[in-house]
Amino acid sequence: MEKHQGKQGVVIVADCDHPSIDIEKSVLEGVASEVRWLACKTEDEIIAQCGDGDGIIIQYAPMTRRVLEQLPRCRIIARYGVGVDTVDLAAASDRGIVVSNVPDYGTHEVSDHALAMMLCLTRKVPMASAQIKRGQWDFRLMHPVHRHQVQTIGIVGLGRIGRAMAHKTHALGMKVVGYDPYVKPADLPEYISLLPLEAVLAQSDVVSVHCPLTETTRNMLDEPMLRLMKPSAYLVNTARGCIVDEVALDKLLTEKKLAGAAMDVLAAEPGPASHPLFRHENFYCTPHMAWHSEESAQELKRKAAEEVRRVLRGEAPMYQVNKF
Ligand SMILES: NC(=O)c1ccc[n+]([C@@H]2O[C@H](COP(=O)([O-])OP(=O)(O)OC[C@H]3O[C@@H](n4cnc5c(N)ncnc54)[C@H](O)[C@@H]3O)[C@@H](O)[C@H]2O)c1
Q: In this structure, are residues 249 and 227 in contact, taking their beta carbons and an 8 Å threshold?
């Protein structure tokens, strides 16, 4: 017991698929009496194993009202990542629990990944490479390919990542239009034109999704919305799977009403090999890795643990997302 004197709480990493939690342990040294690393997937597992946590760090673990009601000591839930859609924010606020994310660790990585996905679609690199490996060395099989300088990118969600994507695609010479009901034109660089969502979808040669998953954005790109896009247009989604209706997307790709799509995120992850979208040659998918680089992974872990350290020390949190 002696060695825990002056320490301020139990910190539980409820789930995390990282190779170690050494960074978190070093940040929490002197503040946490214990840093416990678990692999909770279900509500029942969290309830059974995290009841003594003063600070809880999560990756995908579902923090529902039912779970939160059974965490009597919890003062902070820190999420590794930006999206906090797995946490019932209202329930956390009701119980005075700070919910925090790490909003800025992967802005460059995600926008680079969205750009890479866009370029795979527009320059047809994976498709051309696959043709060559099948013995077909013929660029005409890749028609049509268009010059980016005459194309329009439509960005849905103009926060950190959306603006970084706007900056990068503007640098390619693309016209940039965007939809975000919460930003004003004055907040944006002059090269971004704010338009209604319908107009963004109808005008863009590439639509890139960068809004959070909320009750408003869930299925926001449903069949009628996707049908507003040009048949020659591409869709890129590095935000959250449930924002795009996958059944509708499958239908449009099958009907050739869209030229292709690329997603880093699916409604249900991991996506099974039998996923209907995977049979389309013009559909690309990556395993929710847009955020990742060696550097961003370390920054994410450090910042999540620093936020827990602040709250356990009684300091103001830096990245609180809920209000109470
Ligand atoms: N694939 C990955 O690895 C990965 C990594 C990080 C973030 N993400 C996703 O990217 C999203 C964006 O991240 P960010 O750092 O830019 O967040 P951010 O909070 O800086 O920006 C989100 C923007 O979306 C806007 N928005 C909210 N509701 C909207 C709506 N109905 N329609 C259009 N726009 C709306 C907000 O006003 C805000 O400007 C996150 O919520 C997360 O889900 C994915």
A: no
Q: Which DSSP helix (H) or strand (E) runs through 318? A: none
Contact 218, 194 (CB under 8 A): no
State how far the Cα of 324 lies from the Cα of 161, in Å rounded to an integer. Answer: 27
Is the peptide bond between 270 and the residue preceding it cis, with omega within 30 degrees of 0? yes
Task: For the chain, give every domain's residue range.
Answer: 9-105+294-312, 107-285
> Residue 320 pairs with which residues in a beta bridge?
100
Q: Which CATH class is domain 9-105+294-312?
A: alpha beta
- What the block records as the tokens of 222 is 């449903």
State which of 87, 110, 188 you would mutate to test the pocket of ligand 1, scoring each by most atoms of that ligand within 8 A of its C-beta.
Answer: 110
Q: 155-191 pLDDT, tens per residue?
A: 999 999 999 999 999 999 999 999 999 999 999 999 9
pLDDT in tens, 268-294: 999 999 999 999 999 999 999 999 999
- The residues annotated with a catalytic role in the active site are 240, 269, 288
Q: What is the pLDDT of residues 46-65, one digit of tens each?
A: 999 999 999 999 999 999 99
The answer to whether 149 touches 172, Cβ cutoff 8 Å, is yes
Residue owning tokens 């969205």: 114
CATH architecture of 107-285: 3-Layer(aba) Sandwich (3.40)
Ligand 1 mean position, distance from CA 214 (Å):
10
Q: 99 phi and psi, to 5 degrees?
A: -110, 125
